[in-house]
Structure prediction request, 335 residues.
Amino acid sequence: MKILLTGAAGFIGMHTALRLLARGDTVVGVDNLNDYYDVTLKEARLARLSSQRNFSFQRLDVADNAAMAALFAAERPQRVIHLAAQAGVRYSLTNPHAYVESNLQGFMNILEGCRHNGVAHLVYASSSSVYGGNTALPFDEHQNLDHPISMYAATKKANELMAHTYSHLFGLPTTGLRFFTVYGPWGRPDMALFLFTHAILAGKAIDVFNNGEMVRDFTYVDDIVEGVIRVTDKIATPDPAFDPAHPDPATSSAPYRVFNIGNNRPTPLLDYIGALEQALGITAQKNFLPMQPGDVPATAANTDALDAWIGFKPDTAVTAGVARFVEWYRGYYAK
Prediction:
């Protein structure tokens, strides 16, 4: 297939593109290479992709209406995997307009491109952050999501609503995947594992928020990619059991689906740090701090619906995934 993949120079985007290319798909990558974090890391990811057959790249901003319309018309992809977004909960507290431009305007351009160019399936990245102030764990797709606690979360929930509108009005099959704390080789420098590793190797203390009383459903990137590709291959369909008198937020009478994709093994942050200390062979100095605004104390994914849909659920142990990240980090930065 020809697949348009946005966020191709990103962490999950690069891994997804490599898997698609390895199985013989043609991938049209899109990324604006913004400077939210180290651009050289994005360029290094892109260099890995550019050496592959059947990969082409367009440096575009998904928020550019005219450029995206022209790209869709020229390429006519069969399916779209939309991973581009302004990431980060904390950054959204000080730069909210960046989220409106990328996550709302950009997503509208993706929906319009799919609508007008015969795209058979749109798969897009949502986030565990949409669960907001919910405290009923594990999170499942049937819960109410009307209480976001960051602008990032609000834009991701808005994406799900926008996707449903296009599925309903135009019959566009859409599937949203709520990612839970993704980590692994080539990860983002603003994420905890990267920040911790950098600080520990530099002999500096690490900042541990909520006094270490955080729990996260850390999900290894290869598991995320497996889920993304399997979902892309299984086009969203209407739910024959959908009852508009008792609507289920995760399905619809339209070709619309939303799934959690997480490890289903909620891990205390201090255990995550322990896995990193073991992989590095160094005990971290810890600077315990209060909870940050926009953050939540715990996440945990119920992945039963995903498993029923595609016969897969993430299962990589944190100790194994963290060790692979450390191996990559030491090799990459040794250069």
The chain has a mean pLDDT of 95. The first strand starts at residue 2 and ends at 6. Residues 65 and 109 are 6 Å apart (CA to CA). Residues 96-116 form the longest helix (21 residues).
